[in-house]
């Protein structure tokens, strides 16, 4: 359709027009809350007293947070969970994707679909199912472990040492398929003739994997790992729902995000929660930047 | 590939078995969700839990529809998810295209700001969002759910990445020289090329909107307006949860997502290629 | 390629169409409520959670008789979500309900802010009604400034539920369980030896009761009236020692309340007693372990301790619409001071009345089949009247968890009681004034 010349968008203004719907929404719904939470981080606020109950406390919330045993505990939990979920996910997803890509042809869609399914489940359903599956005396996970390895029933949800692996498993279960799909997509972009040439040269499958597949996957690994870092450090839903919103025995599964939520809505300390969320932000930003640097160096040496 | 050597054949078969077992592990919780949906509350709490379907599906559905306007909630979830997807696709593709291929003031800092919001937990927005919604008069209206979401940081990130790699500048220049208007270029040249990423973003947005319950918790007030996750949660009380009905509701809630996934899984894979090729 | 594009645009058109059609479909039935919204009658908004929402709904016919033309809209949310939404509403003073239901454990937190109206002031003047409610329930809704922030509607008097069949097998008399804690533990050992059943579900439940014993009026649970941390006092030490003894003798089943194992333990007769609120009998009867009907009896808590487990209140937000406050108070009075309504709620939803007048009714003398015909409500009524209130503190929730965690350390990881309580005290002191 051709607009009359007067009404037609000039290339000079087009960017602003195109980007404005997004920017307007973002300014209202993204920036304002950001600013509000920054403002709040420097105030003490009893929320049920209303907006005018905010009192300025300067860096008081930040110093409290940095000296709070639970804050550090939650950061420790977060880092543990981020590593325990992030590393295995990618370590398993890459070979799995390679396997499916090269060997699975018949039921490929079904298999990929099965791995991707956990990603779309609702958290309410997950909570109920896994509480039942992780049940100590009669849950199916203990039953399976007992049948396969003869282990005694493990108290998954009642012991601090066990809650973390339980949560890690659920996160792994939920996002493995997502990463498999990412890597499958990337594998399709590696040209087949590279493999053919390598086979002709007599390279073993393992060497082909190391020198063709891995480098070819590098951009996608970067993308996937960045998402895992950000997601892992902000882990909230799985630990929250599995421990009924509390963080588990000895707060073992209380990630920083869960603690933030509790600070705000269980302990009614919004100022403290805001300060902590900005500290968490600083941490995530630092880790993302570090990931960026690590991959940039890797890529520049290629 | 699989040669005649018995060793290799065995290794091959065990690899298949492993992958197959993994797939079953992925599917097991779903299976139990559907099994529990057909069991009564007491039976679900049996140890060992029931392994096969029971006969309480009718009863569970009855409880579900009696306690909640369930089908209406389902309808609202569908409406909000569809609207959210449509709007997000529109705004993020427009914006992503602009960020990727056009030049304008503050482009860099603006994008950095948008990316920064990815790093903050979303529930910190609850109270300011509530204030805004009230100021706009959107409380208890579904607009409050799908309009803010259209400014998705993830969405614009994905669109920008994809547009950078999938849309050649020469094509745009050519279209411009052919006399195509800016919006025409977007609609006829860029959008078709963005198709795979749109599929991905559409799917991700739909799922996120469907499962979202914090947003509706803040802005919706009447039971008739609730979306599914919120409505289902109201079946949970500290002492008297209707587990069977809850599982039946959750199972039904998962079905549309399953259908959508089956229909669009190809799109998803194609779309996610985009993020890789930077 | 072209066809694919059409697919996409067709899909988008379809989506847009659906987006347009669905609201038309969904809004249609909604028109009736919109119509009533524009009607000139007054509308009260009540925010509640299950099962209070059912109680309010059941009260509506009576309400309509008293106030025809005043519509009541009930906004019901899941228990935790409701309180989160109330926090949000109070924080922005926006879209506040006229009547806000609150559970006992949240009243403390909300009482400290200035978000709720003082019901002792005019036009509410609840002071005149104060004596009609069970004393401890009222006192728990009074904050440090002496304001009554909410009216009690139901309470949960603590009770000891015992499996008489297991007691008989072990030749243990009920009196031994209730005399004092030492005999409670000793009886537990005998029960375990004779029947294999655990005495309690978790040693933590014992700690919960003992720390609430011996409270001086005006003394808070974890923090004293002066704001000092009290976790190193005698009652905590006793509680920890008792719990440790229970665990050492393997008298607890180490199951958490409401978990699968917990429910199953009841069904299989693996638990000899349960220390909880009176409402637990109803839960056991309804769905946890209906098969054990007739095998249970109710008794007072050991060592003459009287403790409350939960309860519900109704409050009026300070910033709610002033023109409706009088009506809101009328509704609250109907729900909490009307003998018929309180009894009705007890009958249908097992909500133990906070109104003392409602407790004088033949209903309380009825035999309870689950408890083998015991008229236990009389027992619970008496227990309720002897519970000592404790002023709530904002950090009570946090303190609950810290003390619980430290007890776990003592029970499972051999930490010394002094060290555990000292660590807990340190954590609590840091937050005393937040």
Report what the structure shows.
The complex is a heterotrimer of chains A (302), B (278) and C (434). Chain A is mainly α. Chain A has two domains: 5-56, no CATH class; 61-300, MetI-like fold (Orthogonal Bundle). Chain A has helices spanning 14-41, 60-67, 69-103, 108-116, 123-133, 140-149, 160-187, 192-200, 205-233, 237-242, 256-265, 270-300; strands at residues 43-44, 55-56. A two-stranded antiparallel sheet of chain A has the order 1-2. With 278 residues, chain B is mainly α. Chain C has two domains: 42-155 and 310-365, D-Maltodextrin-Binding Protein, domain 2; 158-308 and 373-430, Periplasmic binding protein-like II (D-Maltodextrin-Binding Protein, domain 2, 3-Layer(aba) Sandwich). Chain C contains 17 helices and seven strands. In chain C, strands 1, 2, 3, 4, 5, 6 and 7 form a seven-stranded mixed β-sheet that branches. Classes of the chains: A mainly alpha (302), B mainly alpha (278), C alpha/beta (434). The interface between B and C is large, with 41 and 44 residues.
Secondary structure layout:
The complex is a heterotrimer of chains A (302), B (278) and C (434).
Chain A: H1 14-41, E1 43-44, E2 55-56, H2 60-67, H3 69-103, H4 108-116, H5 123-133, H6 140-149, H7 160-187, H8 192-200, H9 205-233, H10 237-242, H11 256-265, H12 270-300
Chain B: H1 6-37, H2 41-44, H3 57-67, H4 70-101, H5 107-116, H6 126-136, H7 143-149, H8 153-166, H9 169-177, H10 182-193, H11 195-211, H12 214-219, H13 228-233, H14 243-276
Chain C: H1 2-38, E1 42-48, H2 52-66, E2 70-76, H3 79-92, E3 99-103, H4 104-112, H5 135-139, E4 151-163, H6 164-169, H7 174-179, H8 181-195, H9 203-210, H10 234-248, H11 260-267, E5 273-277, H12 279-288, E6 296-299, E7 308-315, H13 325-337, H14 339-349, H15 376-385, H16 396-413, H17 417-431
Parallel strand pairs in C: 1-2, 1-3
Antiparallel strand pairs in C: 3-7, 4-5, 4-6, 4-7
Helix pairs in contact in C: 2-14, 9-10, 16-17
